What does this fold into?
Amino acid sequence: MKVPITWLNDYVDIADLNLEELAKKMTLVGLEVEEIRLVGMPMPPGEKHEFKYAGLSWPEDKFVVAQVDEVMPHPNADRLVLCRLNDGNEEIIVLTGAPNLFEYLGKGPLDKPLKVAYAREGAQLYDGHQPGKQLTTLKRMKIRGVESFSMICSEKELGISDEHEGVILLDDDAPTGMPLVAYMGDAVFDVDTLPNMVRDASVLGMAREIAAATGRELHYPDDSLTATGKPIQGRAAIQIEDPELNPRFVLGLIEDIKVQPSPYWVRRRLNLVGMRPINCIVDATNYVMLELGEPLHAFDYDILLNRAGGKSPTIITRTAQEGERLTTLDGVQHTLDAEMELVTDTAGALSLAGVMGGEESEVTSSTTNVLLEGASWNFINIRKTVSKLKINSEAAYRFSRGVHPALAELGVRLSLKRMAEWGEGQIAEGLIDNYPNPPADPVVELSADWVNASLGTEIEAQKIADILSRLEFTCEVESDTIRAQTPPHRLDIHEGVIGQADLLEEISRIYGFDKIPSRRLDQPLPPQSSSEELVMEDDLRDLLVNLGLQELIAYRMTSPEREARRFPPEYQAPEVDYIEIQNPISVERRVMRRSILASMLEIMEYNSSLDQRLALFEIGPVFNPVEGQQLPQEKQMLSIGLSGLRHKTTWQGGEPEVMDFYDLKGVVEGVMQGMHIAGVTFRAGEHPSLHPGKTAEILIGETVVGVMGELHPLVKANYEMEEAPVMLAELDLDAVLGAARILFDVEAVPTYPPVLEDLAVVVDEVVTAADVENVLRLGGGDYLAKVQLFDIYRGKQLGEGKKSLAFSLTYIAPDRTLTDKEVLKLRDKIIRLLDEELGASLRS
Amino acid sequence: MTEKEQALAELEKIRSEALAVLADVADEEGLEAWRVAHLGRNSPVMGVFSGMGKLDKELRPLMGKAANEVRQTLEEALAEKRELLETAALQNMLTTEKLDVTLPGRPVDRGRLHPLTKVLRRVTRIFGDMGFQVYRSPEVETDDYNFTYLNMPPYHPARDMWDTFYTKRDGVLLRTHTSPGQIRVMRERAPEPIRAILPGATMRYEQLSARSEIEFVQVEVLVIGKGVTFAELKGTLDDFARRLFGEDARTRLRPSHFPFTEPSAEMDVGCFVCGGEGCPVCKETGWLEILGCGMVHPVVLQYGGYDPEVYSGFAAGMGIDRSTLMRYRIDDIRHFRNNDIRFLRQF
It folds into this structure.
């Protein structure tokens, strides 16, 4: 909420605080000042300011209150007039085109001079003819043959509002010659009001916090009424159907009111807060809402009389009938449901309770008698209505957060008083007050001991009571115990242990967080345990980084179409269930992802042309709905993506090599080895996204834990990617981490020299390298320490459908040097097995 | 000349001639040729040994000794010459071989963590050192955990503080903060004391812009025990801020409101970019807002299974994205999930 500080000053004396000090005090009690807009006042002294400033200052020598004594025609222009103006020092002729001065043209010297805001030569102000806020400096110039060097200002030129239709006409008592800043200079604080502090969405509420923070006195506005009209009793009635929804309803009546503009100071204040002045009736309700936080509603009394057939109207509050319709004063017709609370009379709905008035009974320029409503509503009910009808208003903002019923009466009294003052109406004696459901205003009991034990402070009981009293709690102190009665303007204080926490917040906030000591935790350590899964996940991240991969974090939100791109065009993907978002920001992000590969592919597409070499991974969840469960399974997955050059090109040249399946396999093997996972095997597999001949399933023992391979060319065509093939792997993280070993046996470092031997094995094309290796290991037994494939050869000599795999074998015995004879024996066994198992021969 | 004198003169000739030739040898190749010629099997000095049989028996020991001396002299001279040549060759190599050290090195294809992971790790390590354990809780949550158990019953005004993504499943939403994890940890641990942190992704309905994201990473901090004080909240978070932002980091707490803590506060840290002088990063205020915190609300304790008459605690939540933006002065929050390689490889 925006608050002008001169208005705050009505309730708490803050004139001696500079803007910076005041804003800091407010921020430290929970009224965060987001911006300070100067409307005349100077910047606070000093180079450094903690707050953000905007707006315009009015130097005392440049802007003054002046009076126009006569409005005269311009010799050469019909649309301009000349004003004989007195600025307190001298008489000046000032030229203006303001339409609201034309009515004084040709009337000779005015009996009652017009008070205006006058800017002298050299003054810096906003250009009234330019859009927005553009600064300009007043210079001497000739306009249509008449010299001009100064100006009578509009609100826009002074930075008060965007109004530029006419110049400001100040109230008659404005003292001529007074610096304008002294008369009406201001600064508007834009305060972020916390949701639990709706009591502070009012000038008085903020003043109360400032009073509490500074230990100053809070002055309530004078609400004494002088009734000059007939009593209201018998001229209206109230009937409340559900006191839960409508705890209180108060009516006041004012008659013979003149619907006219409010005094200038009222209109200026409303403008500064950002509310458009309308007329004295509407302004009085809005003014009091801003002042007190109690929204009010004015009905045209004669329309109500009319609707009641001339009899005294009865106001009935009730819930709407299902399907009942009401057109609110913004011209929108609403269809209501049976939960929505209405203010009605015997002829039907008048307004949407606590939210917005109806069109029909609205006050107009011909209104003379006003029935004024001040009520209190159930905030949850109002919230439901507001969210269902998607309607908002200043009233709904406050009522949907809880306004204390005590404010209903005060609001009506203050508003009637203002209407009488600004519209010369006659206030009917008395109010009609129906108050079936007063709130509890709990009494909270707490001990200073407990407060100090909770905060870590040493505040005396009396000091605690003082703090609470400053916030208008009524406190009794009995040795260590404080009994605090909640003041009748807040609904956020509860009973019992919750109430104690509520008060703890109030005490600590006003005492000052900065005065509470800062101490290290003095608590026993909880039973310690590790979240092993998360630790290992981090180990895996490090391992992947060590393998040269870049970590990604992808959006969880996607769309089924985006995910479907990972399939070939003709592929019939099985229907899957998604976690669908009811209110997505776009159709592109309307479900939670189910495929981590789809995320990887999108990111590879994005980066495809941006780097020669992409080596990427992501660890994150996919969201799989589970039949019969409210929440989806959040399955942690690992994806790996490689594409482009094996090594980036350098000035040293060399033939660039493109990464292929085996680069990916190397990474996957590196992961498995790095996590010390045993029993990892690979076998040819299938996956709709992958090239059918270049796909492998990754197994740990008998369990498939993932898939890897080269992206299917038809799928690749779905993405805009560079030419290089794309390698992808997807692994079930839980399965991988579940098989990872933290503890493993380290093999002894060999003390005897190894025997090395090369063996080229000729097999049929269908025999895999793994098949051969298995036989080699079978034959070599424990002595065969290492098997390494170093060459693959296909050629005429071998014959059609044959290939030669050359292995380097390392034999080692832990306790001796192996003899040639022993090695020969092993070799013979291997050759025999190769022949028996695979029909393989040695390449000659 | 006696036979002896003649023989010795012969030897002396062999010696001096060989040394004279050696003096002119200039490289390794010449040296080897010299060695073969003057110390090899067919060299003159070796000829002396093989011709020993023809000599007078009495002369043999004397001549043998003298020939040996010559051979030894030649071998020493060879070694000396070899060393000289090697030294010269090394000197030559060191003076002629010269790299352009300004040429770029061969790039090593280094892997990297995502910047959010980097910063998250610093945060978790600091709390880990203080005895906090890391937990994970669901990203798709129930309305109850995200709101009701955190003291925000349906239609509670504070629900407006978070722009929520709802799912089409009844009572299921995308968590707007990591705070639902508080309840999950409490229910798992009650009545034990707790020191927990819960990092994870959270989601809020926002218009994507340089300053606002729909997905971001948060860390929740939770302490539960008997007699946990606001002073300890301050102390713990002060220590944390000093370790994350530097020894002399200044902090302040401002009152705030979160339905699940009371009192609630926001912690600001003195702007580490300008040192509090005011700059665009801190919007000229000298302060950066880094986290929200407060004492755990009694209602939340109750939902978590702790009796608020006996237990108390504090909680804090911080946005990792925001801290990362500030740390590296990143201009656009969307970089984190766009995963542009040109952005990522700067870390």
Observations:
- The longest strand of chain A covers residues 613-624.
